[in-house]
Amino acid sequence: MIDRVDIAIVFALDLEAAPLRDRLQDAVRLQARDTAVTTGRLGDRTVAIAVAGMGKVAARATRQVIDGHRPAAVIAAGLCGGLSPHLARGTLVVADRVAHVASAKRPPTMSPGGTELITAAAGPVGLTLPDPAALARLSCAVARGLVVTADAVVATPDAKRTLADETGAIAVDMESWWIVDEALQAGRPVGVVRAVSDTVDTAIPADIATLAGMPHAMRRVGAAMRLLWRRPGAIVELAELRDQAHRVADDLAVRLTELLA
User: Could you state, in order of their start, the residue ranges of all structural domains in the chain?
Assistant: First the structure.
């Protein structure tokens, strides 16, 4: 078992983490409290892949993986929602800034440390990963800009456009802010690398958005069963969203492997 790694990669969901985890050599899977962690080797690097859960719970999981595996650097990874009309499904997004929004209708809030935005140009609070040389190795285009972390799924095209107008963000997720904040508090270089799973024009049904925003897997399972009992047609929508997410997660694993090569 590897107790000290070169890099920790923190995902919210197992669906997001699985394709990259399958690429690890000498993989060892652990359970640290509520956080599943797999250590192994990806090329010449030692890696810890953590499945942290959705939303603010990702902060605690990030601290656990930092304390347990002492990574030299941290990456927040996974899927995101596109806010720019130029981002197609599957587009790779690399944050140069990250902000937290309390809801889709409010501007960025202050961080626990009193910093409104964590920016790449702001010295020790900068997002220093991935480095330009690593990005140059990628075999795909990269969208760079502000990524915002919301407290709930931003489900409608109108809400996405409003969020983009208010913040200038190109993408939205539910974890990056919390992961970045914990990594910076621990003095680790950190980056955000995500792939667009739903575009700005994609509408997610309200009941499915509520389901997707639940932080705990067991609660999501129970809520999914109740949803399908009330609205059997939702099974098709859930299957389509899951298939899309799997395809995007597969592509993201390829890009992360290229970045870490």
Answer: 7-260
Q: State the Cα–Cα distance between residues 210 and 195, nearest whole angstrom.
A: 21
CATH number belonging to domain 7-260: 3.40.50.1580
Residue 19: beta bridge partners?
none
- pLDDT (tens digit per residue) in 113-167: 433 454 433 332 447 678 888 888 888 989 999 999 998 888 889 989 999 998 8
Give me the helix-helix angle, 217-230 and 234-260, nearest 10°: 150
Q: What is the dihedral of CA 228, 232, 238, 240, to 10 degrees?
A: 170
**Stated pTM of the model:** 0.82
Query: CA-to-CA distance for 261 and 258, rounded, in angstroms?
Result: 5
Are residues 77 and 10 in contact, defined by beta-carbon separation less than 8 angstroms?
yes
Contact yes or no for 193/93 (Cβ under 8 A): yes
